[in-house]
């Protein structure tokens, strides 16, 4: 029986989650802290160290062989640094080195959060059994990751598959990244809500102007809400089709808050996809909702740690 464990960290702008995970992807112990996102870098690192401290205090810790980190990006796996957009205190922050020190020198694998969720969906979720897949997280931002030839493909810095910043509208709105007409600028939750409000959608008496509220209105048949989701679906379809045409994926998995909108998103998305995925080799492309839920980041970080251990043949990702 393979009794080794890995530690996993899922670092975002809201929370820092940690876990000890076995070789089957089962979470045996959890720890969590709120991210002090507006504080200085050392304060943020203090929260990470508190999570790690809870893990290292466990009797299970002696079995931990490696650490996987999925972090909000951009990350630079080659340098071991992170510069999350939503954590201004971390710019080129040496996270790998600091986590290695906090864990007594264990090997550390760093990937972006979109890549982590991709690893999880490929190992145990909606992309399981697919050798070539794109997994997307559509929420406040739009991120993603790729599986190519049966292996996670994070790219040299750990950011490959970042579909949110493919341009799908040449003359579109300026995106905060500096480009125009990015998938994220059209399809992220806040942008779906912004478009609905600009189009004259009126929130209910509770004043909720979130994408979830727009989705609820769309389900009730509100034409402006429906149109905002259709526009987002078309942007996603164009980005997914471009990716499939470039690298021959056969499935796109969509998670994140906007992915939870259900048919309001997936029906127009599946309808729009053939308009963009036109060539013979991409016509079999399917789109599915993510299955892994809130633990995806931790499970994916664990998968990266297992994959980084060359002496672990059951590394999950190669299966």
UniProtKB/TrEMBL annotation:
Q: InterPro entries in the record, alphabetically? A: ATPase_NBD (IPR043129), ROK (IPR000600), ROK_cs (IPR049874)
Q: Which residues cross the membrane?
A: none
Going by the entry's taxonomy, the superkingdom of the source organism is recorded as Bacteria
Per the record, the similarity remark reads: Belongs to the ROK (NagC/XylR) family.
Q: What is this protein called?
A: ROK family protein
Q: Which organism is it from?
A: Streptomyces lannensis
């Amino acid at each position: 029986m393979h009794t080794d464990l890995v530690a996993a960290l899922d670092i975002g702008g809201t929370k820092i989650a940690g876990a000890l995970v076995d070789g089957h992807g089962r979470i045996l112990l959890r720890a969590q802290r709120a991210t002090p996102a507006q504080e200085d870098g050392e304060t943020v690192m203090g929260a990470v160290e508190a999570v790690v401290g809870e893990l290292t205090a466990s009797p299970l810790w002696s079995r931990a062989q490696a650490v996987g980190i999925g972090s909000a990006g951009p990350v630079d796996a080659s340098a071991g640094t992170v510069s999350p957009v939503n954590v201004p205190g971390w710019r080129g922050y040496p996270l790998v080195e600091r986590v290695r020190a906090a864990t007594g020198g264990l090997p550390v694998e760093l990937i972006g959060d979109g890549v982590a969720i991709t690893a999880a969906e490929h190992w145990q979720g909606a992309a399981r059994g697919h050798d070539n897949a794109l997994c997307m997280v559509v929420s406040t931002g739009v991120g993603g990751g790729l599986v190519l030839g049966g292996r996670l493909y994070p790219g040299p810095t750990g950011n490959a598959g970042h579909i949110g910043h493919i341009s799908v509208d040449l003359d579109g709105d300026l995106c905060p990244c500096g480009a125009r007409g990015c998938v994220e600028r059209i399809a992220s939750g806040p942008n779906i809500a912004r478009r609905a409000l600009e189009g004259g959608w009126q929130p209910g008496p509770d004043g909720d102007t979130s994408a979830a509220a727009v989705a609820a209105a769309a389900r009730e048949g509100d034409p402006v809400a429906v149109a905002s989701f259709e526009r987002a679906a078309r942007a996603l379809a164009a980005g997914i089709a471009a990716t499939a045409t470039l690298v021959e994926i056969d499935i796109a998995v969509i998670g994140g808050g906007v992915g939870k909108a259900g048919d309001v998103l997936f029906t127009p998305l599946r309808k729009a996809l053939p308009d963009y995925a036109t060539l013979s080799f991409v016509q079999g492309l399917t789109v599915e909702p993510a299955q892994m839920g809130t633990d995806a980041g931790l499970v994916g970080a664990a998968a990266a740690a297992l994959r980084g251990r060359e002496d672990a043949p059951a590394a999950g990702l190669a299966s």
